[in-house]
């Protein structure tokens, strides 16, 4: 009889390492030959310090940038590049079979091409073929290489197969070049990997792979004068959690960010806005080819009719009243003018009283498919890493999400969106 440390594999399948309660997640960190290879050292440190067992598998070209001794010292594991090293252990099969996650950072254009076409000319590409766990690629290359049709097709192929290919960051590249192709920051790549590992076997499905989603986040600001504005308490944490979890589930994410002071989530295209009018313009444009739109931003309902061109001075006289006018209702607009009938639209309702009653009324009025209703107030909902809510569906469904990390609420939202996307 098996002991509690030897669970019986279900459905005749090979036992997965993560079935062990005391198992240290096994991560394979693939490193291909780009200048950004040095950043993988920081990613490796984050994995090892958080309790993961990491095997680094570099390509021969990667070792021209960071030597094998560095990888071995930082990981505490042997380092090999060829299938004929320690051949008695059959590493080209075993490493991939035993992994809970494979992440390649940086992933060069050459590596992406080999992975897309199933080439296996070294230990890393063999590992990618034998892996039966989630696979994450973090590309890094020059802009021209990233935008080349061959690379775009290879990325699309990998995504269709369920791999998670993170969009590269925009910034300074090798030399004086600037543009898309920069490796995202290691802490942001780690955040994506952490979300994938948290989903366990469900993370293998990458159920949003090939989907384009738009998320709005933060709070709009409506200027009164050059230094003052009407705003709200939204920190953008929930919207950023939605963007990060969507990336970890394989989606192409456009994040419309209104006045947020948080690190950009790796893999998301960021569009920065300030006012409700700017947010409307960005969301409407991005929604045209989106499979799903999640309006998590706190959009101001009103704005001043007039904006002073200079700072309003304090005098002995009482200030002039500020006359307000309505802002556009972005959620209602995109619901009324969907890009296509099967587009899924999610709204948020921040309420202080009569939470569910107000939420149900808003769901009908706006015409969205799902409405996330939560209570807000001093220290509740806004400016907090945690949240609780009820997700109302136009089909009459009601999904409560207990108090917990905002990533948990985000994953529940995407679960419901994925069901509706089929």
TrEMBL record:
It holds the Pfam family Flavoprotein. Keywords: Decarboxylase, Flavoprotein, FMN, Ligase, Lyase, Magnesium, Metal-binding, Multifunctional enzyme. Its cofactor is FMN; Mg(2+). Residues 1-24 are annotated as: Disordered. One of its GO terms (molecular function) is phosphopantothenoylcysteine decarboxylase activity. GO terms for cellular component: phosphopantothenoylcysteine decarboxylase complex. InterPro entries: CoaB-like_sf, CoaBC, DNA/pantothenate-metab_flavo_C, Flavin_trans-like, Flavoprotein. It catalyses: N-[(R)-4-phosphopantothenoyl]-L-cysteine + H(+) = (R)-4'-phosphopantetheine + CO2; (R)-4'-phosphopantothenate + L-cysteine + CTP = N-[(R)-4-phosphopantothenoyl]-L-cysteine + CMP + diphosphate + H(+). One of its GO terms (biological process) is coenzyme A biosynthetic process. PANTHER family: HOMO-OLIGOMERIC FLAVIN CONTAINING CYS DECARBOXYLASE FAMILY, PHOSPHOPANTOTHENOYLCYSTEINE DECARBOXYLASE. In the N-terminal section; belongs to the HFCD (homo-oligomeric flavin containing Cys decarboxylase) superfamily. Catalyzes two sequential steps in the biosynthesis of coenzyme A. In the first step cysteine is conjugated to 4'-phosphopantothenate to form 4-phosphopantothenoylcysteine. In the second step the latter compound is decarboxylated to form 4'-phosphopantotheine. Catalyzes two steps in the biosynthesis of coenzyme A. In the first step cysteine is conjugated to 4'-phosphopantothenate to form 4-phosphopantothenoylcysteine, in the latter compound is decarboxylated to form 4'-phosphopantotheine. This is Coenzyme A biosynthesis bifunctional protein CoaBC. It comes from Carbonactinospora thermoautotrophica.
